[in-house]
Design goal:
Largest sheet: none
Helix content: over 70%
Number of helices: 18
CATH topology of the largest domain: Growth Hormone, Chain: A
Radius of gyration: 22 Å
CATH superfamily of the largest domain: MFS general substrate transporter like domains
Number of domains: 2
Order of helices and strands: HHHHHHHHHHHHHHHHHH
Strand content: under 5%
Distance between the termini: 30 Å
Shape: globular
CATH class of the largest domain: Mainly Alpha
Number of strands: 0
Amino acid sequence: MASSSSALEPPKSMLPAPAPGTERQRLVAVAAEGLASGAPLNMVGKLLQGWLASNGVPLELIGVIPQLAGLPYAFKFLWAPLLDRWPIPRPDRRRGWMLVLQLSLVVVLLVLALAATQAPTAANLKLITLLALVLATASATQDIVIDAYRTDLLPEHERGQGAASHNFAYRTGMLVVSSGGFLLAGRFGWPAAFGGCAALMLAVVPFTLAAPTLHPVQHPVTSLRQAVVGPAREFLRRTGVNQAPWLLLLVLFYRWPDGLLAALSIAFLKQAGFSDAQIGLLDGGWAIAATMIGTVIGGVLFARLGMNRCLWLFAAVGAAGNLGYAALARFGGGLPALMAAVSLENISSGMVGAGFVALLMSLCNPRFSATQYALFSGVYAFSRTLLALPSGWLAARLGWSGYFLATALAALPAFLLMVRLVPWNGDGCRGAFDPARDAT
């Protein structure tokens, strides 16, 4: 006769398969792919801008070409369903695409290095712009697959550490490209800078090959219609029509203070009288290092406190980071005060980013993780674009100190939503994917 405890257990076929690989292997894989995800962002933005400026291209074109090339990052959700519908099965449904895209990035960067040897004629500028657009498209598509792989790979109790590892490596990739790329360009020329970026991407390929292999999903996507409609339908079925809008609002508003601060921080520092060198040193190099510190702190706290308490704590710390700029605007203090404000804001931003990535992963069903994560990250993108549009108007009317105080108060909608969705003493976000419950 079966015991009462075993009678209450779900059938083994309904239980989630154990996560592939060891914890160390999973975190190393997440970090390696985070580096591969962050590096191309500055290749498109900063290195391309540096090559254009170094070759005397008019400022009007310098302002247009990198922004045009960056458009795929904003619209990547449009083709995310294709990656769920047509996975490359080997080594697994995510790493197959990752390998193809990483090798494609290597090839594009090598062609870009050859093109950078030529003077910027009209024809060459068209070629450079096209190559940058292809580079950004491949990079944005790689982001879709890497986000999905990380979501599918990490068990729930490792998502905090995984998010921190990803953010740390992502920022490292950005820093290596922005600093190392310019050092190579200064010493050996711009072709060497782009060639060095190709070597960096190629160095990630062995890590992708050695990364843990994902278990097959129980019910793979079998049609394009299913890949397009299925993610939204599954999310609504799981969360309920009444709760889904609140979850999307939490995704939209959680990092709103970040977007409002980023919209005008450089303009404020320039008006405050700080030099380009000071801004570049602190708001560029040191800010990335401080963000890395924040992600490490966030990962440690996440492992100890769990997602719910960390989301509350990180949101509060993030708002406090914005208050550092309010104090700088109100009381001044010169370079030491600027360093303190930049440190506080970026350490808190690293913590907020780690918690936010863990939240998005918890909302995704592995069957549709590429599309769902791309959609959630697209919703978040509106907080730093459309919701930040009134920033200049507000700063002009409130003054700098009042504006930065308002950016800290912009955390209030997220706190109100967390009362409903992420209670302090709860265990996970309401509506999050549960492998045992939502396997189908």
